[in-house]
Amino acid sequence: MKTVLMVAEKPSLAQSIARILSRGSMSSHKGLNGTCSVHEYTGTFAGQPVHFKMTSVCGHVMTLDFLGKYNKWDKVDPAELFSQAPTEKKEANPKLNMVKFLQVEGKGCDYIVLWLDCDKEGENICFEVLDAVLPVMNQAHGSEKTVFRARFSSITDTDICNAMAHLGEPDHNEALSVDARQELDLRIGCAFTRFQTKYFQGKYGDLDSSLISFGPCQTPTLGFCVERHDKIQSFKPETYWVLQAKVNTDQDRSLLLDWDRVRVFDREIAQMFLNMTKLEKKAQVEATSKKEKAKQRPLALNTVEMLRVASSALGMGPQHAMQTAERLYTQGYISYPRTETTHYPESFDLKGPLRQQANHPYWADTVKQLLAEGINRPRKGHDAGDHPPITPMRSATEAELGGEAWRLYEYITRHFIATVSHDCRYLQSTISFRIGPERFTCMGKTVISPGFTEIMPWQSVPLEESLPTCQKGDTFAVGEVKMLEKQTSPPDYLTEAELITLMEKHGIGTDASIPVHINNICQRNYVVVESGRRLKPTNLGIVLVHGYYKIDAELVLPTIRSAVEKQLNLIAQGKADYRQVLGHTLDIFKRKFHYFVDSIAGMDELMEVSFSPLAATGKPLSRCGKCHRFMKYIQAKPSRLHCSHCDETYTLPQNGTIKLYKELRCPLDDFELVLWSSGSRGKSYPLCPYCSNHPPFRDMKKGTGCNECTHPTCQHSLSMLGIGQCVECESGVLVLDPTSGPKWRVACNRCNVVAHCFENAHRVRVSSDTCGACEAALLDVDFNKAKSPLPGDATQHVGCVFCDPIFQELVELKHAASCHPMHRGPGRRQGRGRGRRPAGKPGARRPKDKMSALAAYFV
DNA sequence: GCAAGGTC
C-alpha cells in the first residue's frame, strides 16, 4: 500500500484536519521532536487504498541569515550587507530538528499533500517542506504527479473534504515573494541597525540602549508614537466660548440645553449671543423627535481586536495578552487565538460553546435565556480564511484560571455571548428649542431592550433622566443662560490600542507580529508605557524619528512598507521577476543607506542635544593597562569602561554591578581588575576588562571573566580556583568565589548554579591536590577558632567538597550530592575533574612549573 | 548583538 504524507502548519491543525479526514478513526503518536504529532489512518487516494500520515511543522522550517563570518560586527562594513554578503537558510528552530523529523516521516512516502496555511507565508513553507522531504520520498513513476497542495478557507468538515477532493499545486511565485521579503528585511534591517548602533554607541555614553535597531515595521511603529508626541508639543491651546442654557420643566426640574453653534472662538461674538438670549424669558419648543436606534452587537472576535481590548480595558500589553491567550488555548479553554477572521462559517456550531456556559455562575441566566429563546446569528464579518473567531470552548471559573488569565477569558466569553445576542435598542429623543434668535437642543436616550449590553455592561447606554413630554409650540421658562470660557486641549500620548489600530490600518506587521514590534520599541528604550497604557517616546526615540525625517522621511513613514509590499505582490502574481524586484529594491535601499551614512551628522546634531559624549560620561573606576589612567565606568546599556586617553571602549557583562577589585591587576596586560556581581543569587567573579574583550587564550570566550580564564598561574583564574565539573550543566566548572567569605560559595562559570560551602571560615584555598575518588580539587579551609565545626580544637581541614565526610555535612551541594558518582550508582560521567585540565586527558595532573603549564596551553 | 515572519 502506498503512503501519503500530509503536512500542516502547526500541530493543532494537523490534528483537526486528520480528525476530519479520517472521520475520527486515526492513531496518533508524538514525533521525534516531542512537539509535532503524526496521525495515521487508511483511506483512498487517487482511486487506490493508501496509508495516510498527517503531521505538521511549527511555522517556518527555515530562516534566512548571513553566512557566519558576515555576522562579525567589527569585521564587516554594513554597506556590504546589501549585496556582497551571501545569505543562507538555517533551521529556524534547531531544537525542533524539523528537517530531520520531516525526513524520518517522509522516508518511503509516495505522495505529499501540503496543508499549510493558505497565505503567502504558508506557500513559502510548502517549499521549505518539499526541500526537506522530496529527497527521501519514493521516486515518482514516469510522469505521475506526487506533490499536491490543499487549499482551504476554514477548518470545517465541508471545506477540508472539499480541499482534499480538489488538490492543486503549490504556487512557486507566492513562495518567491516571501523569499524576497525575507532577504529585503534582513539586509536592510541589519545594515541600518549595525551602522546606527556602532555610530552612536561609539559617541555617546548615556544612550541607555544596547541596540539602536531599525526595521521596516518597528521604525514606522515608533514613528506613530513620535508623531503624536510632536502634535502634543506643537499644540497651542485656544480659548473658546460656549453658551449654556437651563430651562425649568413642569416637574419642577431643570434641563440643560446644548447650543447649536457648539462654540465660538471670539469672545465679543459670544457675548453678543449671550446678551441677545438673556433678554428672552421663554424657551420655545420648535420640534421634537423620537427615533429608535440600535447599538450593534460586536463582530466576532479576532486577534487584533482582542489585543486592543486587552490593552485598553484590561491593562494588559499585547505580548502578555498573546501569551495568556496561548495558554488558554493549549489548556482547551478557548479556540485558536491567532486569527484575522471575524466571521463564523455557516456550519459553525455556535450553540455548543454557548451551552458550555449555561451553568456559569456569572452569566448562566443570560445564556439560558438565549438558548431558550433562540440565538441571534452573529453579524457578517470578514473571512480571512484562516481560523474561526476566538471562541470560548470550555467553561471556567476565576478560581480555576486565576488573575490575568481569568480576566482575558471572561472578556472573550462575554464577547462571544454578545455576538449571538441581540442588538441593544434604545429610543433617542430630541427637543429643539429657540431662545430669542438662538437655537438649543436637548437629547436623551432610553433603553428599549438592552440586548448584548447585558453581557457587556460597559457598553450599555448610560441611564439618563427622561426628557419631559412636550410638543411643538410649548414654552418653558428659561432658568439661566450663561457663557462658559473653555480651552482646547492637546491630544494625549498614543494609547497602545490606538497604535494597534494605526498599524493594522497601514499594514505594519501582522496579527502575530504586531505585539512583537510594540514590544521591540519598548525594549529598545524608544518608548515607555505610561499609565493607561499610553506610549510616550523617550529622548532616544524622538531623536531617531526626527533624524529620519531630517535625512530621509521614507525611512520612518508607513508608506514605504506598503510600496515594497506592492512590488512583492507582483512577484506573487507572476507579473514581476523575483530577481529583478529584489535587485531593484535592494539598490534603492543601498542608495538610501549611503545617503543616510553621509548625512548622519544631521541626526547627530539632534543627538548632541540630548546625550553626552563618551568622554564626559561615567565615573572613574579602574585603570587602563596601557596608559595607567583611570577609565570611566559607563552605566547606561551597554555598560562598559571607556579610556578617553586611549579612546578605547571595553564592554562589560550586562545586568550586574561592577566594582573595583582591590586594585589588583591582570598579570597579562596590567589592567585593573573589576568585580562583577549579580544581585539575585549573589554570584560574583573578578574580570579583566581587556581580557574579557580580547581573550588571551583560545579556550576563553569573549565577554567572560577570570573564572573562565585558563591562565595557569594567575591567582584569579579558572586554573587556580576551579574545583570540579558543574552539577547541572555539561560544560561548566564550579569555581570558588574568592570574595564570598565569610559565607563561602562556589559558582558555575557557565550556568547559574551557585552553591554555599562553608560559614565561619576565615580562609579557603583551592589545593593543588585532587580527590582520589572524583578528581575534584581539594579545598583547604581554616575555620574560626570559636566556631569551628571540626572535632576537638582543630581549625584546619583539607578535603573534597563532594566526598569528604566532614565537608559533606557542611556543604549545601544537595543537588550535587545526589548526582555525584558515589550516590548515583554506575553513572555516565567518569570523574568530576575540575575542568581546568585539558579535556580528554582524564587523570592528568596540573603541571607543576609555569613553563610547562604555558606550553600546555599554547600548543 | 541585527529584520520580520511563522509558531511553542
TrEMBL record:
UniProt enzyme class: isomerase
Reactions accelerated catalytically: ATP-independent breakage of single-stranded DNA, followed by passage and rejoining
Domain Topo IA-type catalytic: 171-593
GO molecular function, one term: DNA topoisomerase type I (single strand cut, ATP-independent) activity
GO biological process, one term: DNA recombination
Residue segments, region Disordered: 821-851
Enzyme Commission code: 5.6.2.1
Keyword field contains DNA-binding: yes
Xref: InterPro entries: Topo_IA, Topo_IA_2, Topo_IA_AS, Topo_IA_cen, Topo_IA_cen_sub1, Topo_IA_cen_sub2, Topo_IA_cen_sub3, Topo_IA_core_domain
Residue spans of biased composition, Basic residues class: 821-848
Boundaries of every Toprim domain copy: 3-153
SMART domains, alphabetized: TOP1Ac (SM00437), TOP1Bc (SM00436), TOPRIM (SM00493)
Keywords: DNA-binding, Isomerase, Topoisomerase
Signal peptide from the UniProt entry: none
Pfam assignment, any one: Toprim
UniProt GO cellular component terms: condensed chromosome; DNA topoisomerase III-beta-TDRD3 complex; nucleus
Similarity annotation: Belongs to the type IA topoisomerase family.
Protein purpose: Releases the supercoiling and torsional tension of DNA introduced during the DNA replication and transcription by transiently cleaving and rejoining one strand of the DNA duplex. Introduces a single-strand break via transesterification at a target site in duplex DNA. The scissile phosphodiester is attacked by the catalytic tyrosine of the enzyme, resulting in the formation of a DNA-(5'-phosphotyrosyl)-enzyme intermediate and the expulsion of a 3'-OH DNA strand. The free DNA strand than undergoes passage around the unbroken strand thus removing DNA supercoils.
PANTHER family: DNA TOPOISOMERASE 3-BETA-1, PROKARYOTIC DNA TOPOISOMERASE
Protein name, per record: DNA topoisomerase
Taxon lineage: Eukaryota, Metazoa, Chordata, Craniata, Vertebrata
